[in-house]
Design brief:
Elements lengths: L2 E6 L2 H8 L7 E3 L2 E3 L3 E5 L5 E3 L2 H4 L20 E3 L4 H11 L4 E7 L4 H14 L5 E4 L7 H9 L2 E2 L4 H37 L12 H17 L4 E9 L4 E5 L12 E3 L2 E2 L2 H12 L15 E20 L7 H12 L3 H13 L15 H5 L2 H7 L3 H13 L37 H16 L5 E15 L5 E15 L22 H4 L6 E13 L8 H9 L8 H6 L11 H10 L3 E3 L6 E3 L1 H11 L8 H15 L5 H21 L3 H12 L20
Length: 692
């Protein structure tokens, strides 16, 4: 009787699979074996693409003459540090008594690639291969995955996309890094006073670098503009803001900054004088005049609008969303967050982390009560679980926006499994908090909307201008308070100070009726200032990458207009990590704010004047979309590869022919004025502090 071989991506995952078998498994060097079962593992990647010099020794020396480098057939080799494990796995794959191979590497493009490389290098033929596709590492999910395993051939298109992604990154990295280093590396090194300077270029990495540098330039060039608003205050604390309307004295005036403010303080003081029929603000320098002055102004209420504002529980976490929140809450990098969630996954605590979906599948929705009943055993969540189970709110979750099979490609959202709870004691505080964050987001979807009461009033003050015409000046006030907390009761994180979500109901505002007269006892001038765009944090950058370069703060809007992003959920954190490691970007560990180094900005100019499409987020996202289409068998692998090779050949020729040295030197000089000594980020040792 033949044996079944199960090959996992890591030893810990292999142990999780081994635990579901009742087959007297015995531990051997690099694998476990029983009567009918063999379980082995990779240690991440065992096989990698060979460097160019493996094809021909001439490629070892970087030269224009050998570019572009596009081999007809790509070569692969076993990674030197894991040759022993590869030999073990290869031997098991080819054993005569192994009849069926279960592929248990991570259920995604990269996991598929890891296995295919090993299989091809081991020369496996004629075996019955089955793909195990699971969403968590609980025993029942592993058993289901094995029971429902499909022939490995059904994942050929996914494997094609995986190989293409690797070839694309390899070809762009090898060719463009060598090309730009040969062309401009010495110029950069000379400017930085370093021994040498490699210009590392990558399909996703360079695009992300461009996003950060562009944002820094926007901030640098931003001109702050002051503006002045006029506020009418009543004796009982009501504040109404003036806005220009059609019948306003200032309608269409050049003095306006926007409809609710002026470019100069004199505009606000002039309006106050018209309203009060006298000068109430002394004519002094702006920084010496008073901000508030007594007056007697009567306004008539034109409208009172009252409505309920309902707020839905947020959608569930995908990897990008939890990386963003972890960056804000715990000041940890996306790579650290992924490591934590991967660990939680391997401990059976949460579902698969590398997912883009923020919803449940219809299949998991039908049995979601299992997850809830498991969480009930944890004190912080017990009362919430009781409420959900007793109300039966979980029964209809499959009919809500939180369940949608159309929005799931490989895996549904990250949720707690309700299992593996004994492992919680071994977690460090940050790991426990990340788990709590995922659990509360999950439980919130079973609660009703939060409801706020909103009141908005519009009041009018009539006046006569110097031209003896009648004008109407309008003032507005708004108020909002929480009337029903709904899901917000679940969102009181143990690691955060409880914020008062109720708002401050203004009794004077809520009691006002249309036609009432309001008496303002003072007018106040409030100075504001336009603000530059915010720098990216590690978390907000992940969201921007997910949305093809657009940083959309609003959660609901972000989901509505989501598109194919830059990179994938599995690779984005690593890209940021690599840029920081290369010293092209700087990451403040306390704030998680990302800024470029001088080296990074210089590379931005080099690429911008040489291979500008590499900086285009939309184009980079389209490449990623193309890979997804290959995985879905919508476009042909050969067509994609042909376009890729044409792109590399075209820009290799462009860079060889052009010389942007003079303009780049000017860019380098411009950029260097904005960086302190020590923030250059060069790879060689800086010889002197003197700037050129």
């Amino acid at each position: 009787m033949g044996k079944n071989l199960f090959i996992a991506e890591k030893p810990m995952v292999a142990r999780a699979f081994a635990a579901v078998f009742d087959d007297n498994l015995v531990k051997h060097d690099g694998y476990l074996e029983g009567n009918t079962t063999v379980v082995t593992w990779c240690v991440g990647h065992l096989v990698t693409m060979s460097y160019p010099e493996v094809y021909d020794e001439k490629y070892k020396k970087w030269s224009f003459d050998t570019l572009p480098f596009i081999p007809d057939k790509f070569r692969y080799e076993v990674i030197s540090g894991v040759k022993k494990q590869f030999k073990i796995v290869s031997g098991l794959l080819n054993r005569d008594d192994v009849e069926r191979i279960y592929v248990c590497t991570d259920s995604g493009r990269e996991g598929e690639y890891i296995y295919r490389l090993v299989r091809d290098m081991a020369g496996v033929h004629g075996k019955d291969e089955r793909r195990v596709w699971i969403d968590s590492q609980t025993d029942e999910e592993i058993k289901r995955g094995i029971r429902e395993a499909k022939p490995e051939s059904e994942y050929d298109s996914l494997a094609d996309a995986a190989y293409l992604r690797a070839k694309e990154d390899y070809l762009m990295g090898i060719n463009f890094s060598r090309l730009l280093t040969l062309k401009y590396g010495n110029r950069m090194a000379s400017f930085l006073n370093t021994r040498y300077q490699v210009i590392a270029v990558g399909r996703v990495m360079t695009c992300v670098l461009g996003m950060v540098v562009r944002r820094e330039i926007e901030i640098r060039q931003f001109v702050r503009t002051p503006f002045y608003r006029l506020i009418a205050n009543t004796a009982d604390g009501l504040a109404l803001e003036w806005r220009s309307q059609k019948l306003s004295f200032y309608n269409g005036s050049d003095l306006l900054y926007k409809e609710n403010g002026f470019n100069e303080r004199s505009g606000a003081t002039g309006l106050a004088s018209l309203l009060c029929k006298r000068d109430i603000f002394p004519d002094k320098a702006p920084d010496q005049g008073p901000d508030i002055a007594a007056c007697d102004l009567t306004m008539k209420v034109l409208s009172v609008q009252k409505k309920d504002e309902r707020k839905n529980p947020p959608l569930l976490y995908n990897l990008a969303e939890i990386q963003n929140d972890a960056s804000k809450f715990f000041k940890i990098s996306p790579d650290q967050t992924l490591t934590i969630i991967q660990s939680l996954y391997e401990k059976k605590l949460v579902t698969y982390p590398r997912t883009d979906a923020r919803v449940l599948s219809s299949a998991i929705a039908k049995e979601i009560d299992k997850n809830i009943r498991g969480l009930k055993n944890l004190a912080p969540f017990s009362s919430f679980c009781d409420e959900i189970l007793s109300s039966g709110s979980y029964k209809n979750i499959g009919k809500t926006r939180y369940t949608d099979d159309r929005k799931i490609t490989d895996h549904y959202a990250i949720i707690p499994t309700g299992q593996g709870l004994s492992a919680l004691k071994s977690l460090n505080p940050t790991e426990q908090r990340v788990y709590e964050t995922i659990a509360r987001r999950f439980l919130a979807i079973f609660y009703p909307q939060a409801v706020y009461k909103k009141t908005a009033i519009e009041a009018e003050a009539a006046l006569s201008g110097e031209d003896h015409k009648s004008y109407s000046e309008h003032f507005y006030a708004n108020d909002r308070y929480l009337s029903s907390e709904g899901y917000l009761k679940v969102m009181n994180y143990s690691f955060m100070k409880n914020k008062d979500q109720s708002g401050s109901a203004n009794k004077s505002l809520s009691s006002i009726k249309k036609g009432d007269l309001i008496s303002a006892s003072s007018l106040e001038i409030k100075e504001g200032e336009t603000k530059p765009p915010k720098r990216y944090t590690s978390g907000s950058m992940i969201l921007a990458m997910e949305n093809a370069g657009s940083l959309i703060e609003d959660d609901e809007l972000r989901e509505q207009i989501r598109s194919n992003g830059i990179g994938t959920s599995a690779t984005r954190a690593g890209i940021l990590e690599k840029l920081v490691k290369n010293r092209y970007l700087s990451l403040n560990k306390k704030t998680q704010v990302i800024t470029p180094t001088l080296t990074g900005e210089m590379i931005y100019y080099v690429v911008g004047y040489s291979i500008r499409p590499m900086l285009n987020p939309t184009l980079t996202a389209s490449w990623e979309k193309g890979l997804s289409q290959v995985a879905d068998s919508e476009i042909d692998e050969k067509d994609y590869m042909g376009k890729l090779c044409d792109f590399i050949k075209q820009y290799t020729d462009v860079v060889k022919r052009q010389d942007n040295g003079a303009v780049l030197t000017r860019c380098f000089r411009y950029a260097s004025g904005f960086y302190k000594e020590g923030s250059y980020g060069g790879v060689g040792k800086r010889k002197t502090s003197k700037k050129k």
